[in-house]
Amino acid sequence: MRVILTGGITGGHIYPALAIADQFKEIDRDAEFLYLGSDEGMERYIVPKYGYDLKYIDSRWFDRSSPLKLAKTLFKNERGKRQAINVMKQFKPDLVVSTGSFVSVPVVLAAKALKIPVYIHEQNAYPGVANKLLSKYARRVFLGFEAARKYFPSEKVVYTGNPVRNEFGEQNRDLARSELGIAQDDFAVLIFGGSLGAETINDIGLAIINKYGDDRNVTILFGTGKDYYEHVNNRLKVGGKEVPANVRLMPYISEMAKMLSASNVIICRSGALSTAEVTMAGRAAIFIPSPNVTGDHQYYNAKAVADNGGAVLITEDGDVELRVLNALKALRTDGALLEEMEQGSYKSAPVDAAKIICEEIISDVKARRR
């Protein structure tokens, strides 16, 4: 089987595509893959790292702020479609798997032109523009959240959850702590705001360090995002201070599965990828949804986990830092509550998402060939 993958710019679109590809390889060791993405997105770093071939095509997000910008959008996406058609004629894929973002638009349109079956995965409770637009060309639309069902043709929809790589469900906390050099009896808190960072999350992280920076029984793992690392580092060193010994400050978290496993509580945004990875690890979370996303989908992502008892949902209004500190204190001092939240978190996990997606696709492809 030959498969083209597309979807990019952010890890939230890229990692689900790679999880699906990994599962395909477990089913069919001879399967071949080609990833079509943008040279402006994170895929240029992530995809080759995981051993998949990557080619770039032109694409542009739907800028409708002026007729000129809209014309540029249409022109660039049409050029990307022609590029994708040429790639597909050479690669001869059996199918295309799309996980969204604007880079997927020319790829899916190219597949439609060549009558290659398309399968879409939507990660969020409120779908992105690209997936809503392209769903009419898809044979199946797989959903990360049941709440997204109403936005797509009902006959195409299959609820699966969000696929994550197997490593997130295979970690052992004691081993992860040993490998990371974290004491087995420490209370470990992981804080991150994504690959680029989030100012609100970083302010929360600084407040937590101010509260627990001298506590020898607490380990704070803090991913600031590459855009904020120097700023956060400098704030911690104001007045000639040093970063506390129990704080590990990082611009980017490269061993996410291991750090999730080693932690007791996760504090982060509630993008689709983060919620899926946190729940697969079965960790209690304090989610602070970004208010600056389409359809407030991060709120609904977080609510789905919170409703299962796996997370505390804190909106970004009022004294958010104080509310996070209070929630963290409750989880640190109440072991039974922490254990209940871990169980609720794993209850929300998309355990077999990638497997279900691949089996559905293979079944449909075989049916089309009969």
From TrEMBL:
Annotated UDP-N-acetyl-alpha-D-glucosamine binding sites: 10-12, 124, 165, 195, 253, 298
Involved pathway(s): Cell wall biogenesis; peptidoglycan biosynthesis
UniProt key word Nucleotide-binding: no
This enzyme's EC code(s): 2.4.1.227
The keyword ATP-binding belongs to this UniProt entry's keyword annotation: no
GO function term, MF aspect, one: UDP-N-acetyl-D-glucosamine:N-acetylmuramoyl-L-alanyl-D-glutamyl-meso-2,6-diaminopimelyl-D-alanyl-D-alanine-diphosphoundecaprenol 4-beta-N-acetylglucosaminlytransferase activity
Membrane disposition: Peripheral membrane protein
Domain of life assignment: Bacteria
Gene3D superfamilies: Glycogen Phosphorylase B
Xref: SUPFAM superfamilies: UDP-Glycosyltransferase/glycogen phosphorylase (SSF53756)
GO BP annotation list: carbohydrate metabolic process; cell division; cell wall organization; peptidoglycan biosynthetic process; regulation of cell shape
Principal localisation: membrane
Catalytically driven reaction(s): di-trans,octa-cis-undecaprenyl diphospho-N-acetyl-alpha-D-muramoyl-L-alanyl-D-glutamyl-meso-2,6-diaminopimeloyl-D-alanyl-D-alanine + UDP-N-acetyl-alpha-D-glucosamine = di-trans,octa-cis-undecaprenyl diphospho-[N-acetyl-alpha-D-glucosaminyl-(1->4)]-N-acetyl-alpha-D-muramoyl-L-alanyl-D-glutamyl-meso-2,6-diaminopimeloyl-D-alanyl-D-alanine + UDP + H(+)
Glycosyl transferase family 28 C-terminal domain ranges (all copies): 189-354
GO annotation, cellular component aspect: plasma membrane
Domain Glycosyltransferase family 28 N-terminal: 3-142
Record family assignment: Belongs to the glycosyltransferase 28 family. MurG subfamily.
Function text: Cell wall formation. Catalyzes the transfer of a GlcNAc subunit on undecaprenyl-pyrophosphoryl-MurNAc-pentapeptide (lipid intermediate I) to form undecaprenyl-pyrophosphoryl-MurNAc-(pentapeptide)GlcNAc (lipid intermediate II).
Stated name of the protein: UDP-N-acetylglucosamine--N-acetylmuramyl-(pentapeptide) pyrophosphoryl-undecaprenol N-acetylglucosamine transferase
Organism (species): Mogibacterium diversum
